[in-house]
Amino acid sequence: MRVISGELGGRRLVTPDGTTTRPTTDKVRQAVFNSLTHSGVIDGAVVVDLYAGSGALGIEALSRGAARCTFVERDREALRSLRANITALHLDDRATVVTSDVLAWVPSVRGVDLAFVDPPYSFEAWARLLGVLDAGLVVAEAGAEVAAPPGWDILRSRRYGRTWVTVLERVASPPA
What we know:
Low-confidence stretches: none
Number of strands: 7
Order of helices and strands: HEHEHEHEHEEE
Radius of gyration: 15 Å
CATH superfamily: Vaccinia Virus protein VP39
Helix content: 25-40%
Strand order of the largest sheet: 3-2-1-4-5-7-6
Largest sheet: 7 strands, mixed
């Protein structure tokens, strides 16, 4: 796996061993980031990468001009890969790694411009997560299209093989 474009384009990423994570393919990342770049939402953005795995989504955002990214992951192998990637790419000053369960951590975060959410395909708590996530835009990767709960609109949804990418925009403020 590699960084697709931007200042770190072409650099290789370490991925965790085993089957506990499912890295986003280069094809999917390229399609998502081409769309986001065209929309002008990445440059200077505050980003979170939830269920970060190796950090490929957040690192791609940083490579393409995001100001900061917080990576949230709890799997030990994934955390080793994530930290190795951040160090190898000299992103320590723009990246924060949080070792936590995503659903436990998300209510504490505020002021996020863009959130990447790539949980296991068996994840079923989308409405709960989106109900407390304070972000303007969410890129959700799942095994099926993610339904928009109250307060969110689907901007677009596309299937790439067995992966669905749903982009949601907040239309109402999250609960206080």
